């Protein structure tokens, strides 16, 4: 079967001071999913318009982010599955003195269900980010990831690994560092849920 889901989320922003920055932020997405006997494939497009104070430059900015991608998974065995994805994203600030960026990423991962509640497996990810003010950064990430169903309504997941990157501003020289994440979610009821995440990663900085 094929399913198509579309969402639109407006957000009204109002400021007690600097009321000239009041406005409506918009975000929306469309996702199509094809489900087979052992496989699931999907394609999506997201468009987000955000405004706010950038903590790095300390200025009020408006950003448009467009992203699209495809992803799929295949059940190799009752407890083993593989997943792959490719995505592309571009951001634009609409101002001459602020530069957007282009990000392309792809990954392949495997997962083995040790128990009904616990699964883990490796993941290899490649990310290329380009921007006029930060150059081009190519990064390979080699991770081990795990998911655990703590209770019927509580789930946690995490990953830890090595990030190896080359930067065009450093004449292609490479550097390695740690990367990882921790995520938790709680299903409060059938209509309300809470989720949080912590991410540690190296990103290119402006000149």
Q: How would the global form be characterised? A: globular
Number of helices: 0
Radius of gyration: 20 Å
- What is the terminal separation in angstroms? 49 Å
Roughly what percent helix? Answer: under 10%
Roughly what fraction of the amino acids lie in strands? Answer: over 45%
What structural class should be given to the helix and strand makeup? mainly beta
Name the features.
about 210 residues, globular, about 0% helix, eleven-stranded antiparallel sheet, mainly beta
Structural description of this entry:
The protein has strands at residues 2-13, 23-35, 39-53, 60-77, 80-92, 102-113, 118-131, 135-149, 154-167, 174-187, 193-200. The chain is mostly beta strands and 207 residues long. It has an eleven-stranded antiparallel sheet, with no helix packed on it.
Write the layout of secondary structure elements.
Layout: E1 2-13, E2 23-35, E3 39-53, E4 60-77, E5 80-92, E6 102-113, E7 118-131, E8 135-149, E9 154-167, E10 174-187, E11 193-200
Antiparallel strand pairs: 1-2, 2-3, 3-4, 4-5, 5-6, 6-7, 7-8, 8-9, 9-10, 10-11
Give the gist of this structure.
With 207 residues, this protein is mainly β.
């Amino acid at each position: 079967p094929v399913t198509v889901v579309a969402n639109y989320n407006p957000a009204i922003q109002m400021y007690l001071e600097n009321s000239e920055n009041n406005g409506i932020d918009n975000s929306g997405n469309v996702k199509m999913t094809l489900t087979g006997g052992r496989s699931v494939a999907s394609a999506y497009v997201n468009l987000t318009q955000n405004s706010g104070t950038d903590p790095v430059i300390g200025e009020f900015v408006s950003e448009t982010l467009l992203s699209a991608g495809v992803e799929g998974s295949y059940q190799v065995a009752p407890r083993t599955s593989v997943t792959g994805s490719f995505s592309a994203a571009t951001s634009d600030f609409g101002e001459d003195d602020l530069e957007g960026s282009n990000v392309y990423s792809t990954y392949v991962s495997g997962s083995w269900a040790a128990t009904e509640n616990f699964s883990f497996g490796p993941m290899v990810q490649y990310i290329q980010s380009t921007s006029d003010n930060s150059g081009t950064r190519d990064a390979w990430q080699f991770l081990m990831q795990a998911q655990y169903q703590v209770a019927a309504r509580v789930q946690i997941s995490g990953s830890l690994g090595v990030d190896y990157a080359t930067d065009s501003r450093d004449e292609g020289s490479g550097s390695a560092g740690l990367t990882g994440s921790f995520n938790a979610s709680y299903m409060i009821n059938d209509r309300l849920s809470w989720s949080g995440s912590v991410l540690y990663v190296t990103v290119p900085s402006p000149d």
